[in-house]
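Troubleshooting log. The previous structure file for this entry was overwritten by mistake, so regenerating from the original sequence record. Sequence copied from the archived sheet and checked twice against the printout by T.R.
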Amino acid sequence: MNYITVEQFMGLPEEIRKVFIDWWQPKMHDLFLAKLGEIGDLKCCIGDKYTLEQITQNKGVNKFPLFRLDQLWEFISTRYKHIGVNNYSPTIEHYEWNVKLFKSMKQLEPDIEVTEKDLLQAFWEAAVLVAKEKVRG
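Regenerated output below.
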């Protein structure tokens, strides 16, 4: 999958979701979840100007982003200008992705470090940690 799941976003505490919603500036082709009450949930893509205007005006009100990797990178880079990404193979069967976030290039140790088997999941986990950091102040 090339975007986070509905369960991942909606499973976050409300104050963390709010950090992401406040940051999100909807653009053409962004993916989002529309919660339609009794009808259910619908995964959508912003494909025209009318939808873009509606999502921009009503984001967070039953409309929630389903972020792609590039959006997570952009979110993280609002607080961390130095992002290191490597993949390696701890076993011959699979690769793991390592994402390190630094506030300064002079640091030897990262402020945040995440390792996952999937690059999108590594960035999602790092982005959630950044959002939690923002909530804590």
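Strands lie at 31-35, 41-45, 63-65, 82-91, 94-102, 112-116. Archived copy saved in two places this time.
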